[in-house]
Write a structure and sequence with these properties.
single chain; 241 residues; alpha/beta; Alpha/beta knot; Trp Operon Repressor, Chain A; five-stranded parallel β-sheet; 8 helices; 34% helix; elongated; binds S-adenosylmethionine
């Protein structure tokens, strides 16, 4: 899979793309990432990518010319274009899984007050938000998306099994995890996890995932694939709250 990132701060990607899973995936050739300076498509002599907003108001807006031309020069046939935007479609695990099936994603990082609204129409691009808050630029958002999508690619995670057990993989939050020591400052690991009884551990983890989701993100339970018995148990816990 290939990512092409367009930004006025290419240096923001240097270190994150060198470390951990992303760094290894790039080194192994599973992932290719091209980071491009948007100013390379901006007019000389000032290489300005922004201009004042029509209608007045604070700040500057990213002009369509450099962004559209930059995308058109790096996009390959079938490549999908995503504009990082606080007003975009929320990035979820399901969307990350869908994006992971593409051969190329072109990510555009906004700055200033955002991008001219004609850009997404000209490029047939989708705006993506990583959460309900405003960042000062799209670079971190692009890195979040890049990370979330890349770890779903075959060969990127050392242990692919972890993917199936993580939060959101089955519509629930993940069960609580523990490691050594078994007793830390008087807080003991649940007995069942040191019992060696695999089936009981699996059942306990499933129940914990359900309880945790009910407590922290109850809305997820509406669409999570639960058995009838699990739905009934959740209903009982809900009434006990
Ligand atoms: N005026 C814009 C608004 O109110 O939605 C915010 C612009 S923000 C200061 C500059 C850039 O940061 C945006 O163009 C976008 O690329 C990026 N950005 C900010 N928050 C984001 C978020 N939650 N998700 C994705 N990108 C974000």
């Amino acid at each position: 899979m290939r990512f092409d990132v367009l930004t006025i701060f290419p240096e923001a990607f240097e270190s994150p793309l060198r470390i951990s899973l992303l760094g290894k995936a790039i080194e192994a050739g599973i992932l290719q990432v091209g980071v491009h300076d948007l100013r390379d498509w901006a007019p000389e002599p000032h290489r300005k990518v922004d201009d004042a907003p029509f209608g007045g108001g604070p700040g500057m807006v990213m002009a369509p010319g450099p962004v559209v031309e930059a995308v058109e020069s790096v996009q390959k046939p079938g490549g999908r274009v995503l504009l990082m935007s606080a007003a975009g479609r929320p990035l979820t695990q399901a969307l990350a899984a869908d994006l992971a099936s593409h051969d190329q994603l072109v990510l555009v990082c906004g700055r200033y007050e955002g991008m001219d609204d004609r850009i997404h129409r000209v490029l047939d691009a989708e705006e993506i938000s990583i959460g309900e808050y405003v960042l000062s630029g799209g670079e971190m958002a692009a890195l979040v998306l890049l990370d979330a999508v890349s770890r779903l690619l075959p060969g990127v995670m050392g242990n692919a099994r972890s993917l199936g057990e993580e939060s959101f993989a089955d519509g629930l939050l993940e069960y609580p995890q523990f490691t050594r020591p078994a007793d830390y400052r008087g807080l003991k690991v649940p007995d069942i996890l040191v019992s060696g009884h695999h089936a009981n551990v699996v059942a306990w983890r499933r129940e914990q995932a359900l309880r945790r989701t009910l407590e922290r993100r109850p809305g997820l339970l509406d669409s999570a694939p639960l058995t009838d018995a699990e739905r009934q148990a959740v209903e009982t816990w809900r009434q006990q709250e």
